Amino acid sequence: MTKQFPKGFLWGGATAANQYEGGFGEGGRGFATSDTSRAVSPEERKTMGGSEFNSPMTLEKLKFAMEDTEGLYPKRWGSDFYNRYKEDIALFAEMGFKTFRLSIAWPRIFPKGDELEPNEEGLAFYDKVFDELNKYGIEPLVTLSHYEFPIHLVTEYGGWKNRKVIDFFVRYAETVFNRYKGKVKYWLTFNEINILGMTGYLSGGLLFEDGKLHLDEMYQAVHHQFIASSLATKAAHEIDPENKVGMMLARMEAYPATCHPDDIMNAVQKDQSNLFYSDVQIRGEYPRYMNRFFRENNIEIKFEPGDEAILKQYPVDFMSFSYYMTSVTRHPNNQTAEQKATAGNLITGEANPYLEASDWGWQIDPVGLRVTLNKLYDRYQIPLFIVENGLGALDTVEADGSIHDSYRIDYLEKHIEQMYEAIEDGVELMGYTPWGCIDLVSASTSEMSKRYGFIYVDADDQGNGTFDRSRKDSFFWYKDVIATNGANILND
């Protein structure tokens, strides 16, 4: 029997407006938190800690970035999808995409975030994008909020710690649900919602004038996002019963370093801190294990009357997540001075001696994807969707213009094989959209040289280049994967 993925499996690719769209200042778009992300130096890139992505933001730093005419802010131009969407979508269609994940930039629809009426130019832009996708039979998978929070809501309201922002978000969500009814069926509310519990600024618009991240404000902001997500899910279903709404988690699978019971318990707690966000959005209530964490960290979440009912009545339809790597965790009592650390997608941990690592130190663990798919499906019993996965690497353009990225093919092939094994295990998997299917600006360090795409974009870290597109070897490989529904790699 020929092995292949289930009929209707949604193969595609993923991007985000803040890293890909560009069009800064065009079409009435307002300032976003991503617009203040400067390009960091090569020395700072060596660790995630050197990134502004996860360091506290102050009002002074924010205002400086908005007025700065000397620094580099690559997310303002991204990969120029704003002007090249037809060309890019044609390339996605050539690969055979069934779906394309993108995000709507909130400040392109409501430039300040709190207006009563939307920006028609912004709405019209996405009309054109969705019409182009639909022309090729590509299903849009749309994220409502992906690290591009309107700056006005930061300076005037204090970001998501202010409950008023819930109403602004719901107005935005209802606006796009109504506008794109019949054009978009699959929606995600907040990208990697758990990142707000670590960063505060990009997705939450939180400022910390003392330079320290305040957990109480961050978790209150998360609570407001939970309520906003539930109300958006309610609206999506009422406006179009065909709509399917998912939550999105940065999945952080952590293995215990040893079989020492303390290490095992440490891994359990790491898992709970990660899955708290999906537990609330899928199960519709706060898990009891968070009570101790809140108590020991002096966190008191303010619930308004009706909040518990909202969470319970309007859970999401499916779970989506990003998966790049796993980590190893060890209880502090068992750590030694020589313990090595490994950088990752906003997580650090001990290096796993059984795994190789990428150019950026992210450990490569295909079997870990099967592990996490099984664990998530066992826990929630709802459809899963892998909406980010991929290898950031340095690509070399040969003299003839070709790009031989066998390392990327190898990475993706091994992960796809493990996806198939998970489906055979009984996991209900909707689809797969590898991250950065076309080269775009890095979320963490605002560099272009950390490339993920099947499609090469001729631009460097300073924004120099033609921005012309070209096909890498992986482009043709992935085209064959989609055309055979995975059979070409599953039956070698």
What's this model, at a glance?
It is built from 15 helices and 16 strands.
Structure explained in plain terms:
The chain has helices spanning 17-20, 59-67, 81-95, 106-109, 120-135, 151-157, 164-179, 215-239, 261-283, 289-296, 307-313, 366-380, 406-424, 473-483, 487-490; strands at 10-14, 99-103, 139-145, 186-190, 244-250, 253-256, 318-322, 326-329, 341-342, 349-350, 356-357, 363-364, 384-388, 429-432, 455-457, 469-471. It is of the alpha/beta class and 492 residues long. The protein has one domain (10-252, 314-326, 337-490): Alpha-Beta Barrel (TIM Barrel), CATH 3.20.20.80. The protein has an eight-stranded parallel barrel, surrounded by five helices. It has a two-stranded parallel ribbon with strand order 6-8. Strands 9-10 form a two-stranded antiparallel ribbon. A hairpin with a 6-residue loop joins β9 (341-342) and β10. It is globular and about 60 Å long. The two termini are 13 Å apart.
